[in-house]
Amino acid sequence: MEYISIMKRIKLNNTIVLILSVCIVLYLTACGEAKVPDTQVLEETEDLVVVGFSQVGAESDWRNANTQSMKDTFTRENGYELIFSDAQQKQSNQITTIRTFIQREVDYIVLAPVTEDGWDTVLSEAKEADIPVIVVDRQVNVSDDSLFDCWVGSNFRLEGEKVGEWLHRYFVQNEIDEAGVNIVNIKGTLGASSQIGRSGGLSISARKYNWNLLAEAEGEYTQARAREVMTNLLNKYDNINVVYCENDNEAFGVIEAIESAGLKIGPDIADGQIMIVSFDGVSEQAIELAKEGKISCIAECNPLHGPRVRKIIESLEKGVRPEKFEYVDESIYSSIDSIREIQVDEKAYPITILK
Ligand code: GYE
């Protein structure tokens, strides 16, 4: 009896021990589960490279693709914490944001500036705080080049000249008297490098080939604004042959304005059509319109700067100085297959023919 009851007790004790052990394990796991992520987050945050990105806004398809590229690149999985800020087209917002980045002691500041001028003070503050500054897309016009580490983006003047050369080739091929060509320029955000470069490229070509720059208006890189300014231009002028849109979204607005005025869009200007040329080639909509011949020529502008900026940060992390200015290679799109190549400054650029 004694033996049996002892055995029973042992068994009971074993069961209690087992139950207790399970409880303890469950408890520890539960505690563990609650605590592990905390410590992981802490450890991760310590290891993550913190990047503050001041973006222009969300005015165009190009801009949205650019934002996405940065967000896809600077992820936690890739070892980064991205602090993203949309300036809604205002430089004053960007200046405030950069000051916040400095206060938060981010590891890198990435700046896509709205306009070129007005950066000296805030970038001096970043330099003072010893935070590297990488400029993307548009450039900054500063008195001292050491106020930013490097810049990566497009050669906007070259883009403009490419479109200019394409137009010239088209006029020559189609025996159009260039002195009789009337062009209007729907400019992007005034003072932005892309606007300055593309308008500059057009002026160079207009001077060279004797085109008449009939009028210009600010389209702010948006569809809505371009539609509005184009409607006004159509009310004022009845002899517009070519509309030079400084991005595709402006071209969308210009198409709406021309079509609502009951006019025809296309490259056959000798037959009264209005020809549209533009920049970016990022959205499907733009490529489709180029295929339809509503946009005759698009100079590509590449927005995928995320991986480029990452490379720059990786080299700075290793203490290697990146190139001060990095220009991206870009193509030209058209569905008009009679022009296969154009030349700017004796360099040949092939045209990507859209089918
Ligand atoms: O072409 C336009 C955008 O600066 C390259 O800005 C950028 C321009 C781009 O809003 O679509």
Please explain how this structure is put together.
46% of the residues lie in helices and 20% in strands. The protein is α/β, with parallel strands linked by helices and 355 residues long. It has two domains: 42-153 and 303-327, Rossmann fold; 156-302 and 331-353, Rossmann fold (3-Layer(aba) Sandwich), CATH 3.40.50.2300. The strands form two sheets. It has an eight-stranded mixed beta sheet, with helices on both faces. Strands 2-1-3-4-5-11 form a six-stranded parallel beta sheet, sandwiched between helices. Helix 4 links the parallel strand 3 (108-111) and strand 4. Helix 2 packs parallel to helix 10 (306-317), helix 5 runs parallel beside helix 6 (193-209) and helix 7 packs across helix 8 (248-260). The protein is elongated and about 65 Å long. Residues 1-44 have low confidence and may be disordered. Beta-D-fucofuranose (GYE) binds at residues 59-60, 62-63, 137-138, 192, 194, 221, 247, 279-280, 301.
